[in-house]
User: Which sequence fits this backbone?
């Protein structure tokens, strides 16, 4: 028993192509398109705009952004005085945004020095090759310009302020000029980098 190449069975169709099956497919398609398009009737109304697929008003997509953003994070200071961001995993487990919110809250509550000490100890224990040059850790709150950052500019171009809320020396690593950084601030003092 052979099937002809033009029969619906040979093409993998499960129902015959009849006027009734076309009507059913047409009705299902119309119902689906209507369900997707119905939320559009709420666009333009004030007050009762409800968020719904596919016309989202979710702030992540529709909110106007400020030209700058404040972020609390870690800086690693190397023996020559250069600084660079450290990976957020030194501050906690979980996703970046969850860790960032927890750290921001702890710094606001005055735990910046404790966080810096904890990270400095972890830095010494983990001994990652990329972080071996770091001799001091700073917990900072930085103000960054969004546009230059997104365009991949140098850190100096998008960093407008850094407020240090905690600092700690990495155990077992050489210190900077007897405990002083290139800005001349003694370890443990709160200070602000001019950017």
Assistant:
């Amino acid at each position: 028993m052979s099937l002809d190449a033009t029969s619906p069975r040979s093409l993998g169709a499960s129902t015959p192509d009849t006027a009734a099956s076309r009507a059913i497919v047409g009705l299902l398609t119309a119902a689906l398109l209507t369900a997707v398009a119905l939320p559009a009737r709420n666009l333009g109304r004030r007050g009762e705009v409800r968020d719904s697929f596919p016309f989202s008003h979710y702030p992540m997509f529709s909110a106007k952004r400020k030209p700058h953003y404040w972020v609390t994070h870690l800086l690693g200071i190397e023996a020559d005085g250069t600084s660079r961001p450290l990976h957020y995993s030194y501050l906690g487990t979980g996703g970046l945004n969850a860790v960032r919110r927890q750290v921001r809250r702890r710094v606001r509550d005055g735990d910046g020095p404790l966080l810096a000490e904890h990270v400095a100890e972890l830095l010494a224990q983990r001994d990652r090759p990329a972080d071996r040059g770091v001799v001091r850790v700073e917990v900072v709150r930085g103000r960054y310009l969004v546009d230059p950052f997104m365009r991949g500019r140098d850190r100096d171009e998008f960093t407008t302020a850094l407020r240090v809320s905690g600092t700690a020396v990495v155990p077992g690593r050489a210190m900077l000029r007897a405990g002083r950084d290139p800005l001349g601030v003694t370890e443990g003092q709160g200070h602000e980098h001019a950017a």
Observations:
- The radius of gyration is 29 Å.
- Residues 9-59 form one domain.
